[in-house]
Amino acid sequence: MSSETQVPGRALPVTDLSLVVLIGSTGSGKSSFARKHFKPTEVLSSDFFRGLVADDENDQSASGDAFDVLHYIAGKRLAAGRLTVVDATNVQTESRRQLVQIARQHDVLPIAIVLDVPEAVCAERNARREDRAGMPRRVIQRHQRELRRSLRGLEREGFRKVHILRGVEEIEGASITIEKRYNDLTHLTGPFDIIGDIHGCRSELDTLLGKLGYADGMHPEGRTAVFVGDLVDRGPDSPGVLRRVMSMVKSGNALCVPGNHENKFGRYLKGRNVQHTHGLAETIEQMDGESEEFKAEVREFIDGLVSHYVLDEGKLVVCHAGLPEKYHGRTSGRVRSHALYGDTTGETDEFGLPVRYPWAEDYRGRAAVVYGHTPVPTASWVNNTICLDTGAVFGGKLTALRWPERELVEVPAEKVWYEPVKPLASEAPGGHEGRPLDLADVYGRRIVETGEHGRVSVREENAAAALEVMSRFAVDPRLVPYLPPTMAPTATSQVEGYLEHPAEAFAQYAADGVERVVCEEKHMGSRAVALVCRDAAAARERFGVDGPTGSLYTRTGRPFFSDPAVTEEILGRLRAAVGEAGLWEELGTDWVLLDAELLPWSLKASGLLRTQYAAVGAAAGAVFPGAVAALEAAVARGVDAGELLTRQRERAADASAFTDAYRRYCWTTDGLEGVRLAPFQILAVQGRSMAAVPHDEQLALLDRLVAADASGLLQTTRRLYVDTGSPESVQAGVDWWLEMTGRGGEGMVVKPLGALVRDGKRRLVQPGIKCRGREYLRIIYGAEYTRPSNLERLRRRFLGHKRSLALREYALGVEALSRLGAGEPLWRVHEAVFAVLALESEPVDPRL
Amino acid sequence: MFLTISTTGTPDRPASDLGFLLHKHPDKAQSFGTAQGRAHVLYPEANDDRCTAALLLEIDPVALVRKGKGKGRGGAPDAALAQYVNDRPYAASSLLAVALSSVFKSALRGVCPARPDLVGRPLPLRIEVPALPARGGPDLVTKLFEPLGWQVTAEPVPLDTQFPEWGASRYVRLVLEGDLVLAEALRHLYVLLPVLDDAKHYWVSPDEVDKLLRAGEGWLAEHPEHKLITSRYLARRWSLTREAMERLELVRLADLDELEVEQVDNAVDEQTDTEDKPVPLALQRRDAIIEALKASGAHRVLDLGCGQGQLVQALLKDVSFTEIVGVDVSMRALTIAARRLKLERMGERQASRVQLFQGSLAYTDKRLKGYDAAVLSEVIEHLDLPRLPALEYAVFGSARPTTVLVTTPNVEYNVRWESLPAGHARHGDHRFEWTREEFRAWADKVAERHGYAVEFKPVGPDDPEVGPPTQMAVFTIAENTSTENTSTESISTESTRTESTRTTKGEQA
After folding, report:
1. Per the record, where are the segments of Low complexity compositional bias (chain B) (predicted)?
2. Which positions in chain B touch A848 (Cβ < 8 Å)?
3. Where in chain A are the domains?
4. From the list A182, A340, A841, which residue is nearest B252 (CB)?
5. Among A103, A169, A620, A774, which residue's Cβ finds the most Cβ atoms within 10 Å?
């Protein structure tokens, strides 16, 4: 690409991000040239650096150090993406080699501009300069000789543009034209429809384009199609696909980046010797009937493809095999290679295929990267990247992404056009979305990034405990997309006889600036999460499981019922209610994830009830009658034990109140007869997390669900709305709680009406505060906790750690839901879910 | 907690002499501080005909709880919630035995300076303990007290009269009647109350053996149940070490599901298949595994689900195994395995051959790649069936050792176990047990899907009708699977890549 410019006034194209190397002997006017055409900060002059390190711009002995610093700064500028001009003689191959190396290191183009000025002119100029007047003539002569020798080989040295300016006149007349990089299409804002790997599936492509709204290669709303490459090979009609794509690109309706298959096919078309493997043979055969003219067009098309594009003001990067952020907008063989082939670990998997380095898992870049190359069963976002190769040619589907809408549009493959070497999905959890869960996703000391609460860390010992429980007892992780967080109780009450009282909860929310709260009845049962799919097909499609239509699990992810048939029976009833209430359509989903309480408590806690709660009641019930009778007899004899007797009577009453307390939460069930489920939040549905939906809207939906349930399974959650700023409203809340707990209710949870709420300092407020009833707390603090001497000591409890834990777990739960809602792969959802379980094993007073 | 001691008498041998023997005046209520509360002694009746002494121990439930560290984590306590709702304030446990021995110290020793004549004389005694925790139920209570000369009434206390279906509690109302020397009677209670309670318990002093010998003097050695009494009494010492090993993280997760920690931290049973008493079938299994490993020529071996490390220990004895890795999901198992192997005291050369680490076959794990062989001995049946595909992929798809050995019980053989009730699994944590046909079907499918060949071998006596007790599958990776693909794909990728770098010339991006 060298231009032997003869005509004065010729413009020299210079790429906007490049390393411009000026080449010319001393006195050839490089510094003047640089000053004239570039910003002073863009120019790194060797003279200047000699001055910096040696106080003398002409001290040749300082050259080594000066170039060290110059190269260092050039590197920093290029890393930051800034055009850089090196003003030094650069007449020696070695000095240029170092600069080309620096350009390559930073994946920018090296450009050479040669100032070829006659020796006499140089000498005359130097003579006029006081500091160079003494320079021997032979220095200039040597420079000139070296320059001559260099001229022919500059391209071979790696310079991608070489401009040679001969003579003073030409130099004076030249101008610099800054050109954008070919891959820089930041000015194009679309909207785009980015289309995954086609591999000759022309019919599917036509169907997809039709579904996207294109007619005859044009979109009526002026959208632009972007092809991620691998148009050809394996499939039935690669020429047809090429014809379609080429015409769309030509007419300006589409952009296209090359895939590795185009690259290889292009080399074949140029007559290179390539193996006809991986579906190339099919393409060659299909091209047989095509005209030489078409073949030439294809060759030219492939030759002109740019490895990746930066689009939409830098918000979008499209390439074939994915690209780390440091390569975005860069230009080098390495970048091109990465864009076409991706990175591999050097290992091969059980199918003999190279193991791809999971670059997307490390990606933290600002731009969304949309790519293809690696067939995945379903396209899903990972760290703002998405792979659209959904294996159309292998019988999967052809997928497009609407940008900026971020909607996926798919058409299924018409058949398996080409037998895959390895199945698209493995059966292990996560396999249906690309890769199964890996221990590194959850194990050891870890930090999970949450959208709502920053980085949440998990300690190793807690992850170890969670690993054991999750592995040995939990439901298939695909069906555990959420675990409920812990909840902090209200600040300790000073009201006589009470440890907890709602006044403190209302006051805390008022202080947090939360004006409106909802009080929700606490159903004393067992916390349950229900994932309800519309049918087995939806469960397979969305969660990758074959058989179950959902799950019903505890706070540690255990199944509630060991018999899957019972779970299915409950899911069936839920499903019927969701359908009857019209929520599938209204929420646009084929599954719902519900947070609920399963009643009665005795259903799941029966073991603990027998060994612990009822046992304590039984022991107390057996011991007190005799003890009180003995004391009464002693007192009747005149023994001074009146006080002791009174106290035992009180203790007996406490113990009996304790028995009453747990009995309220127990009843006999027979199969599902007597089992109730009280849903209080819809956590997520297809395509979105519902965590931020205000609680009144949530409850309105759930009321309809409960009303639509004909089976008697579902139970409503009673609630009262309170204005924390209104004393009357607060009093009404307190009265409601007193009335409810007076009748033996567990208590209530006070939540900010707006669900996901922040305080004046933008900190997350507690998502809920529990206020437990006075009688209920006997189950927690023991039968005799209300005795004044006990209560006084129990009031010294510390809530700080519990509150912090509640917030961290809540943030993780919300994170899991938003990843689930955004359709992220299982390992991303599971990472957050697992962290909730791990945090639940942190030490905290279990009575809180 | 409460008990009464009654006796009857006549004017010349008044029942109220009981007061002398107990060193407690019948007309006074006396109270004594104990470690966990206050003990009170008083007499509901005390005359010539009848005299009853009552011991009432008031436990302070708030002080009872174990203390943790730090604000909010402790200062308040931090282990299982269960300990706060505790039967200790009501039931006659070791706490009552301790109170008994301190309040009636002299009586227990049979010392009565005021009336030495009373000491050795048997009295018509009636002892009532209204709430005695009795593991083993009324039958065991009778077996323990009857040989000592007591007439025993032990009535089970119902758990909750409102829920008769819950059945009886672990408490009995105990009445002992008989003519015995008071000191002996007290010593019986002192030893047998905690033995019956059998709670893994706390406040045990290190000189427990001495105490048992002293309190058991004259009766324990001859007692037909002395072995059970001794082992239960001293087991409480063992429980101290167990408590030290208790993993609080798991305790908390059990709590979250309202389960007892034993229902969660139950991956290994330290009492079975010990070095002293190996289970014969387990030995045969290990022999069969080692033989199969040697036949496969494996040197670097994974023991996936190594449990207490029995196989790792056996493999270490054979120098042809140069690297042995034990993996288990249970930290308790790994701790026990490390102790069994004496890992900390092992010489460097030996130690360099062995590694133990936590892992889970529900996840793929890079650390498991590249081994010659993996053993899954009695592992798969501890997984819920729906989670088995994850294990298959983690082992056969991801780790991909050359050889995989899988052993699992043959459920058909269960009819040959005399002690096993029909229809019961061999182990509480077995989620399934397979017939030979089911196992083969599974193994064939796995082998086909992941490119292995599989053979089956019996372990233990191969019964002509029901087969062997243990079945083993030996998977060997198929030599030619996709190796061709490997080379072509990787080579072609490499070559295209170099070429592509060359061809970038003349093109900017």
Report:
1. 479-495
2. 72
3. 3-179, 184-424, 442-477+799-848, 492-523+717-794, 524-600+675-715, 603-663
4. A841
5. A103
**Which ranges constitute the DSSP H helices of A641-762?**
642-663, 695-707, 727-742
CB contact under 8 A, A614 and B170: no
For the residues of A52-97, what is the DSSP string, one character each? HHHS-TT-GGGHHHHHHHHHHHHHHHHHTT--EEEES---SHHHHH
Query: Are A336 and B157 inside 8 Å of each other by CB?
Result: no
Find, among A387, A374, A399, A353, the residue nearest to A198 by Cα.
A399
Global pTM reads 0.79
Which of B93, B332, B364 to mutate to test binding with chain A, by most A CBs within 10 Å of its CB? B364
CB-based contact A608 B260, cutoff 8 Å: yes
Q: What is the predicted ipTM?
A: 0.84
Q: What is the DSSP letter of A486?
A: P
pLDDT in tens, B112-151: 888 888 888 899 999 999 999 998 899 999 999 999 999 9
CB contact under 8 A, B362 and A648: no
What domains can be seen in chain B, in order of their start residue? 2-244 (3.30.1610.20), 280-479 (3.40.50.150)
- Interchain pair A344, B493: CB under 8 A: yes
B204-257 residue pLDDT tens: 556 777 888 888 888 988 899 988 888 888 765 544 444 455 677 888 888 888
Distance between CA atoms of A438 and B397, rounded to whole angstroms?
A: 12
Taking the CA of residue A827 and the nearest CA in chain B, the distance in Å comes to 10
Buried b (16+ CB within 10 A) or exposed e, B138-155: bebbbebbeebbbebebe
- Provide CB contacts within 8 A for A151, sequence distance 6+: A114, A116, A164
Rounded to whole angstroms, the Cα distance separating B35 from B74 reads: 21
Selecting from B331, B362, B363 the residue whose C-beta is nearest the C-beta of A464 gives B331
Residues in B touching A260 (Cβ below 8 Å): 496
C-alpha to C-alpha distance for A460 and A442, rounded to whole angstroms = 10
Largest CA distance in chain A: 136
Question: What token pair was written down for B254?
Answer: 């059990």
Q: Tell me the shortest Cα–Cα distance from A233 to chain B, in angstroms.
A: 15
- Label residue A845 by pLDDT band (50, 70, 90): confident
Of the candidates A284, A302, A274, the residue with the CA atom closest to the CA atom of residue B498: A274
Are A847 and B76 a contacting pair at CB < 8 A?
A: yes
Architecture of domain A524-600+675-715 in this structure: 2-Layer Sandwich (3.30)
How high is the pLDDT of residue B19?
A: 92
Class of domain A3-179: alpha beta
Residues of B in contact with A632 (CB under 8 A): 44
B-chain residues near A641 (CB < 8 A): 29, 40, 42
